[in-house]
Amino acid sequence: MTTALTESYAACEQITRTQAKNFYYGIRLLPRDKRSALCALYALARRIDDIGDGELPPAAKSESLAALRKSLDNADAAGDPVLLAVTDTARRYPVPMSAFGELIDGVQMDIDGVEYADFAELTGYCRCVAGAVGRLCLSIFGAGDDPRAALFADQLGIALQQTNILRDIREDLGTGRRYLPRADLDRFGVRLEFDATGALHDPDGRLAALIRSAAERAENWYCLGLRLLPELDNRSAACCAAMAGIYRQLNARIHANPAAVYDRRLSLSAWEKARVASGALLRSSASARNGIQSVGEAASGDRAPWSAR
Q: So what's the pLDDT on residue 301?
């Protein structure tokens, strides 16, 4: 590997370590080659997301996304360390580069201020911004023979994005973004607005009921997506289980106390995230010792707290 390429991968890992506050707990469980590759993909995905969340006017954001989309066709000549690492990763792994185009499409929806009439429309958005990331990760993990593996990765990404949406309702409303589908708002009789303190306004508990229902729906998508785990090798499954587990625990916390997102950005502590990652790695080690095909088989019986029987 050339010096330039080594430095490019190091730059991507630094971006991931400092900015992927949840994902890096899982990524660091991978072997070095896969970790470097996934960091490269994350760094590019992060750049796309940062364009959408930046301070530029909407027209300038759209121009930046269009330029980045074009650069993906000639990444080697771009002189960009992130694109150089992604191009090398795509040589070594079956990376679906079109997934970055889907991610750009989703971020463009944010720039355009698209709102969603029903959950089917929201699912389309989630598939662009998160399902695409799930499929990118799968290209690095590798999978077994089940042809549904890409579907499972897509479903898991959609689950994570639903949790993101519930966690960030207040923050998104402050920037003029509304992701909760109109059909859900109407069904629960909710009007999204702030109270006098700047918290989400919920005088009769209808917003809490909506959030609790949406968290239950997200949990169903976690159950669908986690069917991916038995298709992965133990280290990849540990990585995937750690990343999904952090968001799944956050989803359970939101379900238990929807009002917790009314005035703050809810998150797990660093210790809690480390515990989830450690648990995933321990299950991976136990699976290997016991001859289980993958950590997915050991973890497949996990349930959200409210669905336990």
A: 40
- The angle formed by the CA atoms of residues 127, 308 and 119, to the nearest 5 degrees, is 25
Instruction: Report pLDDT digits (tens) over 210-245.
Output: 999 999 999 999 999 999 999 999 999 999 999 999
Check residue 200 and give left, alpha or beta (phi > 0: left; psi -120 to 50: alpha): beta
Rounded CA separation 127/149 (Å): 15
**180-208 tens-digit pLDDT:** 999 999 999 999 999 999 999 999 999 99
Closest CA to 179 of 163, 203, 195: 163
**Residue 302 binned pLDDT confidence (cut-offs 50, 70, 90):** very low
pLDDT (tens digit per residue) in 92-113: 999 999 999 999 999 999 999 9
User: CA 229: distance to chain centroid?
Assistant: 16
Residue type, 133: V
Residues 6+ apart with CB under 8 A from 152: 146, 224, 225, 226, 227, 228, 231
What amino acid is encoded at 153 in this protein?
A
Residues β-bridged to residue 141: none
User: What 3 state SS string does the chain have?
Assistant: CCHHHHHHHHHHHHHHHHHCCCHHHHHCCCCHHHHHHHHHHHHHHHHHHHHHHCCCCHHHHHHHHHHHHHHHHHHHHHCCHHHHHHHHHHHHCCCCCHHHHHHHHHHHHHHHCCCCCCHHHHHHHHHHHHHHHHHHHHHHHCCCCCCCHHHHHHHHHHHHHHHHHHHCHHHHHHCCCCCCCHHHHHHHCCCCCECCCCCECCCCCHHHHHHHHHHHHHHHHHHHHHHHHHHCCHHHHHHHHHHHHHHHHHHHHHHHCHHHHCCCCCCCCHHHHHHHHHHHHHHHHHHHHHCCCCHHHHHCCCCCHHHCC
The whole-model pTM stands at: 0.88
